[in-house]
Amino acid sequence: MPQQRRAQLTRHAIVVAAAEEFDRTGYDATPLSAILRRSGVTKGAFYFHFAAKEELALALVESQARRWPKLRGDWLRRELDPLSIAVGMLSEAARLLEEDVVLRAGTGLARHRIAEGRGLDSEPDWETLLLDLLRRASADGMLRPGVDPEAVARVAYAALVGARVLGSRREPGAGVRMEETWRITLQGVASPEWLSNRKAR
Amino acid sequence: MPQQRRAQLTRHAIVVAAAEEFDRTGYDATPLSAILRRSGVTKGAFYFHFAAKEELALALVESQARRWPKLRGDWLRRELDPLSIAVGMLSEAARLLEEDVVLRAGTGLARHRIAEGRGLDSEPDWETLLLDLLRRASADGMLRPGVDPEAVARVAYAALVGARVLGSRREPGAGVRMEETWRITLQGVASPEWLSNRKAR
């Protein structure tokens, strides 16, 4: 195997092992030795890639910070109404958080003090984007009269956070939990036309 | 001031300061020195009350573990239908989590490894209790036909968790977030009769 490829594999093994440990035990409580044990990587090889545990955590936070804008961009480019975009985007985000421990650990760490002040927290983006989508959906008549689009945006985002926290430790996972939230929420907030169009698709 | 009363006040000051630090910075990342600084208590006085930071965290976890059963018991004894009990109970829980940093920090720590295996995690109770209430509500015709009571229970509990996590750092707080969730969710899942009875009260 070429040396560069081997180095990439080693780095990946470290990142995945760290994500699994951080996800289970928490960043602060995870000793470097646990990451080395889980990844099967020597201390020397670790320090070739990362100067310290903190640098590794930052790599995870940066990795999630790169992935969310892509997901959001992909959904916003689709030719869908704003409510369908909000629904599809958060459902996919929940599935990804369930399946991908690197993304889940990085997202959890984005609110940790090591990420503070680095502009890597994607939470404000989610909230702004959801508020915008739900306001547009409301203006286009996709929400029932009297439904506050901002409240729907906050409820949906809190549901994603709750699904991530609970779904990482017990069945059902975050994906199913987010789907359930939308199914239940949409019955009360979406206009009958939007709901019947959705069923027809 | 009698000596015993002074000791109680000192202990309370330590507990509140620790809760504030754990809530903001996380248990593992909080040094004992930060708790001493915030509480204005000397090291000697601290060690009179607690053998170590871990014992203090356990006191917080035990404190929340004592409070939730009381809240649940109070609500279950009320002469209300099961859906009203679920709604009122989770709304009050969210308000308490918003207002009381000792309760919030202890609840957050209940899933920390220091609490593991001590039977202090109240999450299984919440889930079992909500499942039971929603199943009874469904059997009594308080949910719309086709609505899965277990999904409603899971969504409501994930909403409480999401409201606690998000509401501790930004407006609106957990109480308002949980109210919003119920307002939006109930429109889609509660029977028209239950909703109109509720409005009439």
TrEMBL record, chains A, B:
Q: Which PANTHER family match?
A: HTH-TYPE TRANSCRIPTIONAL REGULATOR BETI, HTH-TYPE TRANSCRIPTIONAL REGULATOR RUTR
Q: Which GO terms describe its molecular function?
A: DNA-binding transcription factor activity; transcription cis-regulatory region binding
Q: Does the keyword Transcription regulation apply?
A: yes
Q: Which NCBIfam families has this protein been placed in?
A: ScbR_bind_reg
Q: Does the keyword Cell membrane apply?
A: no
Write the record's keywords in alphabetical order, separated by commas.
Answer: DNA-binding, Transcription, Transcription regulation
| InterPro entries reported in the protein's UniProt record | ArpA-like, Homeodomain-like_sf, HTH-type_TetR-like_transc_reg, HTH_TetR, Tet_transcr_reg_TetR-rel_C_sf
- One family name in Pfam for this protein: TetR_N
Q: Which residues form the HTH tetR-type domain?
A: 8-68
What organism is this sequence from? Actinopolyspora mzabensis
Q: Which residues bind DNA?
A: 31-50
The name on file for this protein is: Transcriptional regulator, TetR family
